[in-house]
Amino acid sequence: MVKKFRKKPIKSLMFAALVTTVFTHIGLKYSAVAYASSTPETALISVTDPDIFRDDKGKELRAGRNKLRLINGEEINIIIPQEFKDTFTQENVKDIISDNNLKGGETITIHNVIVTETEPITESNEGRIIYNYSTSITYTGTEKALSNDYFIISVAKGATKKLTSNFSQTVTTKIDVGTGKDSPFQLSGGLESKATYSQTKERTFSGPPEGGKANSREYRVKFYGRTFNWTQTRTTILTGTRVTNKGTGLQPTKALEYSIDHSI
Questions:
Q1: Beta-carbon count within 10 A of 114 CB
Q2: What dihedral do alpha carbons 8, 11, 17, 22 form, nearest 10°?
């Protein structure tokens, strides 16, 4: 399976150290220029409240600095680079807040969003002796978190820090399995997709700026995927007998790197 990458370089919102982010998808590497920018943040409440993703003037989240006022009266600052306004969603905000159990006073900064684009899948049965396989995938358009957040590094206020070793995290397509659900006969035709996010130990990470309340900045990465329906038919070469299984899954399509400034 072949993937194309849409380049989304970040322009620094403030000052920042230049870094290189490598995102590997099905064996192909993509390097995007990114900037580690600094800033502060805020909090969450009931993610079912539609006003949770509006600022104090009732405006939707937008590129630049956003301040969310939660039901509990607390606030969270969110910094979204202009380049990510079409790839970073309000659902992503909700995930970050809930996954990290943010209560208020934090600052979330989006450092990089790397998106993959899926090409038509070509499946080969060359050399098969017993069975041939035919797999089709139909995307349903729903984006969901594919993994928990992965911790990269934590940096103290006013400090800089490098990784002690290269960081790499891989996620694979998730197939819904369980009682009463079909399983694929084999992982092929896009059912075996995987994505890898990498950082080298040469990158320098910065902590919260001096003078702010936050004394620690955590860098994390989260993977997202889109839901799909799959159908796979197994044909016995000798007899022509066909058996078809169907199901649903979640294919990796996006890696989101962000940081949280908070006090510990």
A1: 25
A2: 0
Look at the chain and report how many structural domains it folds into.
1
- Measured over the CA atoms of residue 26, residue 27, residue 33 and residue 35, the dihedral's sign is positive
- Mean pLDDT value across the chain: 74
User: How confident is the model at residue 126, as a pLDDT?
Assistant: 74
3-state secondary structure 208-233: CCCCCCCCEEEEEEEEEEEEEEEEEE
pLDDT digits (tens, 9 = 90+) for 169-199: 988 889 987 777 888 888 877 788 888 889 9
Nearest C-alpha neighbor of 134 from the set 250, 237, 12, 15: 237
Residue 110, domain extent = 3-262
Radius of gyration of the chain (CA): 21
| Highest mean pLDDT (candidates 40-44, 88-92, 218-222) | 218-222
C-alpha dist (Å) from residue 189 to 29, 67, 150, 216, 251: 21, 44, 28, 44, 12
Q: What is the pLDDT of residues 138-155, one digit of tens each?
A: 988 788 998 888 999 999
Beta-bridge mates of residue 231: 136, 246
Structure tokens at 27: 């064996």
